[in-house]
Amino acid sequence: MSSGAAKSAAAAAVPMAAMPATPNHHATVNASAGTATEPMAGANAHAEGGANADDSFVGHTPSATAPPMAATQVYPDGFPGFGPEVLPPEAVYHSREDAYKAINALAAAHGYAFITSRSFQTSGGLTTAMYSCDRSGRGRDPNRVMKRQRAASRRTDCHFSVYVKERRDGLWQVRHRTGAQFSVHNHAPSEDVFAHRVHRSLDADQKDSIDVLLQMDMKMKQIVTFLRLKYRKNVGARDVSNYIASARRAKLLAQPQHPEQTARAAKEQASLEQQTLEQEKEDLLLEEELREQLGKELQQTAGGSSAQDFFG
């Protein structure tokens, strides 16, 4: 029996959920997939097209410690310390969704986010998905005359990206792309991870909670507070508002239109917008209070350094 076949037979004999973890940071437990991991041998010793490696590990949860954040701007030659060292490991997952959650968990810890760039099928009928930095693509031409004012684009034409490939055994594996340009960000890490829409998005469970709270006539402040406490996540009032508005629109479109319903929907939307603005204002005031308090503590412990020195 060849060494590759022996490895496959040994791996098949051990349920993936029971694979032992090691102290290595590439061997942790993936909370979303619920599976343990095993170190991968020769992770970088393959060509871009390889899809069925036996030396792999299932699941991965990155360190929650992010590097120091810097001012956001474009660095054509790559931002120092924001390159191959923040690539997700070439791990194996039970599903494409598990893989996507894992690579974005690592991305969040390092100040960036992955979005789906494209997906295609190989000649063998297996799916390959490419996930790119959410700052990929070119920004809008600043000299172009726009019909209406739009927010400035955050795109910097960043090429940082990875593949997630379907294997013949039904598992999905993260693969690094061949080429140095695909493992280097051309911008600094984000100062706030929630600047990335992907990291603020509401999952199905959170949306269900919102639906239940709305049936209980809960206000925006109560809904946001509940979600933050239950999910330990900095849920934004605007994201909750957008979901509620879209759910109401879908419900309205599914029913015959009557003037009374339309008027009531408009009134509810106006009330929702007002509650959202009030919650955002409250969040901003709280953030300013926290910054002021932290600044005072820094002055006391850092020999007179001001909050302005710390926050820039």
Automatic annotation (TrEMBL):
<dbReference type="Pfam" id="PF03101">
    <property type="entry name" value="FAR1"/>
</dbReference>
<feature type="region of interest" description="Disordered">
    <location>
        <begin position="255"/>
        <end position="284"/>
    </location>
</feature>
<dbReference type="InterPro" id="IPR004330">
    <property type="entry name" value="FAR1_DNA_bnd_dom"/>
</dbReference>
<feature type="region of interest" description="Disordered">
    <location>
        <begin position="42"/>
        <end position="65"/>
    </location>
</feature>
<feature type="compositionally biased region" description="Low complexity">
    <location>
        <begin position="42"/>
        <end position="53"/>
    </location>
</feature>
<feature type="domain" description="FAR1">
    <location>
        <begin position="112"/>
        <end position="188"/>
    </location>
</feature>
<protein>
    <recommendedName>
        <fullName>FAR1 domain-containing protein</fullName>
    </recommendedName>
</protein>
